[in-house]
Amino acid sequence: MTDTRRRVKVYTLNEDRQWDDRGTGHVSSAYVERLKGTSLLVRAESDGSLLLESKINPNTAYQKQQDTLIVWSEAENYDLALSFQEKAGCDEIWEKICQVQGKDPSVDITQEVVDESEEERFDDMSSPGLELPPCELNRLEDLAELVASSLPSPLRREKLALAVENEGYIRKLLELFRVCEDLENHEGLHHLYEIIKGIFLLNRTALFEVMFSEECIMDVIGCLEFDPALPQPRRHREFLTKTARFKEVIPISDPELRQKIHQTYRVQYIQDMVLPTPSVFEENMLSTLHSFIFFNKVEIVGMLQDDEKFLTDLFAQLTDEATEDDKRHELVNFLKEFCAFSQTLQPQNRDAFFKTLSNMGILPALEVILGMDDVQVRGAATDIFSYLVEYNPSMVREFVMQESQQNDDDILLINLIIEHMICDTDPELGGAVQLMGLLRTLVDPENMLATANKTEKTEFLSFFYKHCMHVLSAPLLANTTEEKPSKGQSSTSNDFQTSQLLALILELLTFCVEHHTYHIKNYIINKDILRRVLVLTASQHAFLALCALRFMRRIIGLKDEFYNRYIMRNFLFEPVVKAFLSNGSRYNLMNSAIIEMFEYVRVEDVKSLTAHIVENYWKALEDVDYVQTFKGLKLRYEQQRERQDNPKLDSMRSILRNHRFRRDARTLEDEEEMWFNTDEDDLEDGEAVVPPSDKMKSEEDLMDPISKFMERKKCMSVFHLGRSGPQLFSESTRRSATYIGVRSFLAPPPIMMSPFVGVPMDLGALLVQASLRRQRVFRGRTDPLALSDDSLYERNRFCIYLRHLFNGQDIINQWRKYRRCNRCSCPGCPPPPPPPSTT
After folding, report:
1. pLDDT in tens, 50-108
2. pLDDT at residue number 618
3. DSSP state letter for 69
4. d(CA 13, CA 16)
5. Which of these, 559, 567, 473, lies nearest to 517 by C-alpha position?
6. Helix, strand, or coil here: 750?
7. Where is the PP4R3 EVH1-like domain (predicted)?
8. Dihedral of the CA atoms 433, 434, 439, 442 (nearest 10)?
9. Among residues 350, 353, 384, 352, which one has the least CA distance to residue 367?
10. Are 340 and 332 in contact (CB under 8 A)?
11. From CA 462, how far away is CA 472, in angstroms rounded?
12. How many CB atoms lie within 10 A of CB 244?
């Protein structure tokens, strides 16, 4: 049988940092003469071929992971792993590795990870620098090998960077590049490609400043065109000098700023297009290049921000009606790029940037731009507006409230945004989705400020519902004028784009229902918005009908009686029931969403809606039996009617919840069985619980009303409550009742408590309870907390009903007399009764 303990999978780490499976086999450790040491051998289980032969090097760091995995590095950028089928096999090989290295097998890593610079600290102590070969054509190959060999070692990289920087080696290399290019020396150009690429990986800012200077950067790009892996060189310099054009939409007078913009563009081009995609090991070596670009952008934004003349001219031309469309398009694109650069700024610098733009009048300028007909210009303006809203929505809200005091509603900035959302020509409504997100941010109370003097939420929402909400809801009202969606040119039953737009509007209105309790409530009720929305449940587009249902579901979820009365007054469940019935027996989202809405009304016991649904739509829904939702609603309704007929029962649920108690079920069963098995005939003469002088009187006074009652109430009528109450007991438990002696009533066991509530019962309840127990009507007492609220409610209602029947004055007098006699110590009164027999 094959030893599964040594069964392993061999993995190697590829260039994409993914583990490649090299095969499955069995591992062993043995001395290999060729390798001069103990080695790990893995032979394939299929054909016995050698999958792995690795010498256990005393200085190699082996790591044990997850009890069944051993990982180590064979050479630079070559990682291996053995994954064991069983933990025992992994432990055996791990002990062998630790034995060879002289380590304790309890450790998870055999070697401490030592920085390579520490290992080489004492190397070449007498010569701290690195000597570079002469910068000549015949030594380019040696230099390329030196650069490649220095990259793996941090110490050698540092020495190489210092040598290249101190000797001005980059400019010498670029001179050789020009010579090789003139001579068409392709071998030398390939070596220069490897050398310049290696210098990039040295990750040193001082070298980048030289390479990206005005006189060197184009030659550096030229060196990177001659990749030896490509059959033909690239034409990057040709693209940068002939194809790419720098446009000054506003003349830049500062030459340093202009040079910085050119440099940043070219370095970004080198990073994105010229340099090959770095491997996982090389990615961190280009961190300084990323930082170089980042800080260049920060400098550009700062210099433009400080140039007041430049920004003044920019906004003046943007808002000037005489500006040509092409020019305005370039200005808007520049401003968009300018705002995009600002995302790289630190928070405090970004604050200063947007404050500067605000002071320059960016929001009035956007208002003018958004009113233009050019779609591309409006799209760029929308992107700029999104930067402003994401940065500081309060600034935008303050602006639109101030301009409402001077301008008409039609030209308000926020209404322009809503109109562009409504009039989006994109079939997929990409721009409308973006604008809807911006509007949602603006009306979100979570990002509104509250100060001691004013509340932004109150002021802005009042403004929004007064000046803007009618614009937002206009498409909804226009397409729901009839009982079915309008069938015009923009018919929701046929026009998919209009349906998408209405779905976006409903999504925003649903958000308002959740967050704007007061304002949206008044708007919905006054404008009859919900009735219009429910017209869309008849749409052939399922997503639109579901949006309408979601809107109503959010309203019902608030459990607001104002909304509930509005729904009942206008019979707004009617379109929902129609949609449910027209959907038929199909099991889809529409079916589930409608049932969930009714189920919520039932579970949350929304009394007004429950009564409205049952009284108006029960006939249409009574045949739905694949869920119990509608029958549960009918039961809720009947319970409500019974409570209305008997108002005293309204307090029962609070009694149940406040006085429930829990006792050991086994103790209760034992005590009840003892009570059942104790018969009045088993009591001896000395166990009388009522004074002899009172016995006959008590029996006569008490039995007469009881007998009359039991004759009047048959068993079936006793156990069926009201017109529709649930049946409490099975047919087998309905036995004819025989009357018992008074002493059985008046001396119940000390354990006898009501099985329904946690308080003692008066005599009337004890009478009936004892009689029922004697006839074994109550079998196997159950824990009240295990029953549903409805069952407990019905049982208590029955108990109270009987208590009222037996609460006669004769019974009360007899009970009081009995209590007095047992508490007093007069000679004429008999002693208190002893406890009942424990048979």
Report:
1. 888 888 887 788 888 777 888 888 765 578 888 888 888 888 888 888 888 878 787 77
2. 92
3. E
4. 8
5. 559
6. coil
7. 5-101
8. 150
9. 384
10. no
11. 15
12. 10
Residues 6+ apart with CB under 8 A from 39: 29, 30, 31, 32, 53, 54, 55, 56
* Residue closest to 335 by CA, chosen among 374, 372, 385, 282: 385
Tell me how far apart the alpha carbons of residues 93 and 63 are, in angstroms, rounded to a whole number.
12
List residues bridging with 50 in a β-sheet. Answer: 43
Instruction: Report the SS3 class of residue 455.
Output: strand
Q: What DSSP line would sit under 410-439, residue for residue?
A: GG-HHHHHHHHHHT---TT-HHHHHHHHHH
429, 501, 531, 550, 803 from 538: Cα distances, Å: 23, 17, 12, 14, 55
Cα-based distances in Å from 209 to 292, 293, 709: 9, 11, 109
- Distance set, CA 152 to CA 119, 130, 201, 281, 594 (Å): 14, 15, 10, 10, 66
- No. of helices (H) and no. of strands (E), the chain: 40, 7
Angle at 331 between CA 328 and CA 332, to 5 degrees: 90
Binning pLDDT at 50, 70 and 90, where does residue 168 land?
confident
Q: Which residue has the higher pLDDT, 516 or 760?
A: 516
* Maximal C-alpha separation, the chain: 141
Residue 758 has pLDDT above 50, yes or no: no
How many other β-carbons are positioned within 10 Å of the β-carbon of residue 38? 15
Which whole number is the average pLDDT over 714-733?
A: 37
Place of tokens 């409608």: 594
The arithmetic mean of pLDDT across residues 333-351, rounded, is 83
pLDDT score at 710: 46
Q: Are 516 and 569 in contact (CB under 8 A)?
A: no
**SS3 of 235, please?**
coil
H or E stretch including 30? strand 19-32
d(CA 131, CA 813): 120
By the 10 Å C-beta count (0-12 exposed, 13-18 middle, 19+ buried), 681 is classed as exposed
* pLDDT (0 to 100) of residue 95: 86
User: Which residues, 6 or more positions from 637, have their beta carbon under 8 angstroms from its beta carbon?
Assistant: 610, 611, 614, 615
Collapsing DSSP to helix, strand or coil, 133 comes out as coil
d(CA 510, CA 605) in angstroms, rounded, equals 23
Strand 7-13 to strand 78-84: parallel, antiparallel, or no bridges (unpaired)? antiparallel
Sequence-separated (6 or more) residues with CB below 8 Å from residue 120:
153, 155, 156
